[in-house]
Amino acid sequence: MQEKVNHLIYAADQDLHNSIRLGITLTEPVDPDALRAALPLAAKRFPFFAVKLVKVGEELRFEPNDAPFVVSADGGTVTLGTEESNGHLFAFAYQGNTLYVDLSHFVSDGNGSFQFLKTLLYSYLHILHPEAQFDEESILLPDSPILPAELECDPYPEQPLPVTPLGDMTRPEEILMLHDQPQGYENSKDWTAFRFHIKQKDLMGYASSVDGSPSTFVSSLLFRAVSDLHPENPLPVVCGVQHQFRKALRKPFSHLCHVNIVPIEYPFRLRGKEMMKLNTISRGRLILRGDDENDKLTVNRHIDDDKRIRKMTYAEKRNYMRQVLLDGIGKNTFEVSYTGRVPWSGVDAYITDVSPYLDMTLSGGISAEIFTVRDEFCINIMQRSPDSKYFDRVKGYLNELSIPFTALPPEHFAICGLRLPE
Asked: How far apart are CA 58 and CA 33, in angstroms?
């Protein structure tokens, strides 16, 4: 059985991978034998992630892939969609206590893949700790039934949705760009993650007191850092907040990638404003621009692009979708993503840190990812350079606000490549 792909995947190329790496640090060293035993169990429950890309005529399709997932030692990366990954668009690696999960962002997003990851961790931990107790009622066990809604490979309607948008999604023609962040994969050896933890009660206590949220709190911190370090530049700063549109699509169980980028604009006049004011402004703009009606615009664009490429050749599809994706790149000074307070169902008792890593060629130069583990926010600020000046500013602001945090050592990171069939 062959399934349709998300048409954005046609944009992939050697200089446009759009891969994600998730680092999950456990309380004990990763056991590769237990991991290899757990992977088929998770794949049984989520067969739509055990697939390979095939070229059928002038289009790409998914078909089942029975080959084992690749597990690399020493945290190594592979090229997805090739023999290195056994054709899979998921791959796994380990180093010390950290399990790495690599996947194509064209296939899924954090919310779409979370249940799979939780089933994998449950199966892995159940092998190593059969006596451990987990909330099995909220875990999709390997033998649990698969909902038809999960299997949908094309969850979009045939016709565009009626739309009455509330907030203008346009960005300024010129914005402040971070020219101190090198472009392209040739500098990927310098990609660095600056990680820190904040107790949920401390961050949420402050954010709620200023009518903010985790996303707008981190956005405000980074805006302050960028504007303070570039005081002579009068251009507005734009934060692209990653926001999922499953609600507007009415497909909560879809495993595919459904991410929209909502712009929060900070004009020059906001520089020097106190954090309380910035959080309130950011929250208001996020609510206005991240509403269901604006999300429907994203759904309609997807439908329109899909109709456009149906009669194109394979080469034309690749050129067209590449341009669509590139047109959305470089429109932000930095990005922020918050997966939400996900229900770990007890497996997080064995987790100390979760660090998502992104393809930084698709960012404005700095991207922040926010994840929750037990009572802490794990915040990962990624850059295309190892210079800590932005993170040093963020730490200074946290100290000014009397918000306790724990900084982890900076970490260089890499992501998997991706190759499409020729």
From this structure: 40
Q: Give the C-alpha distances (Å, rounded to integers) separating 240 from 141, 146, 377.
A: 35, 34, 20
Cα–Cα distance, 223 to 271 (Å, whole number): 8
pLDDT tens per residue across span 46-66: 999 999 999 999 999 999 999
Q: What is the pLDDT of residues 212-240, one digit of tens each?
A: 789 999 999 999 999 999 999 999 999 99
Q: 416 Cβ partners below 8 Å, 6+ apart?
A: 17, 19, 21, 77, 78, 79, 80, 85, 91, 102, 104
Contacts 24+ apart (CB under 8 A), 67-76: 68/36, 68/39, 68/40, 69/39, 69/43, 71/32, 71/35, 71/36, 71/39, 73/32, 75/100
Q: Which amino acid is at 235?
A: L
**DSSP class per residue in 326-356:** HHTTT--SEEEEE------TTGGGGEEEEEE
Residues 6+ apart with CB under 8 A from 350: 26, 27, 28, 121, 125, 129
The answer to whether the CB of 282 falls within 8 A of the CB of 220 is: yes
- One DSSP character per residue, 45-85 reads H-GGGSEEEEEETTEEEEEE--SPPPEEGGG---EETSGGG
CA separation for the pair 122, 23 (Å, rounded): 16
pLDDT given at position 122: 98
Cα distances from 14 to residues 184, 192, 309, 358, 415, in angstroms, run 11, 21, 21, 16, 13
DSSP state letter for 166: S
